[in-house]
Amino acid sequence: MDFQEQRKKQLGIKSIGDRVRSGDIKSKIDPTLYVKGPKEFDCLTIPWARKEVLGILGGSGSGKSSITLYFFKKILENSLNPNSICIFFSLEMTAQQIYGTWKKLVGEDSPLSNRLFVVENSDEEGKPRDLTTGGILAEALKIKNGLGADVLSIAI
Predict the structure, then answer these.
(1) Which end of the chain is more exposed for a tag (fewer CB within 10 A), N or C?
(2) 49, 116 contact by CB (below 8 A)
């Protein structure tokens, strides 16, 4: 092994080719990573998979939260694992506002409500939370590990 290869190995630097050869990256998505979203969206391409990102951009009041909650409803309905959950990080809306939309989608006493977790931008006392990327990760891990749950999707 030459000096350059040894240095790459010590620093943990891998090219895409290195990662394919080592088996870190495969040419196809592992089917166990798929989550089944709304058929209206899944029918056009391969199904949604964990570790993928979907950006929804729009103005205030344009329905971004509503469509996200609709996606969560379908993902939870289609999940075969009753211990699976979705987490919604709300930087603007209160949990009360989010529940208003959720209730319209699933009904008042839906068991799906027990599988949706909302983290607001402030705590119960109205103090701001640390919802930076690190704070979001910490909250998500606290919920996941605390419940021993399978997180299907996260929205911020």
Answers:
(1) N
(2) no
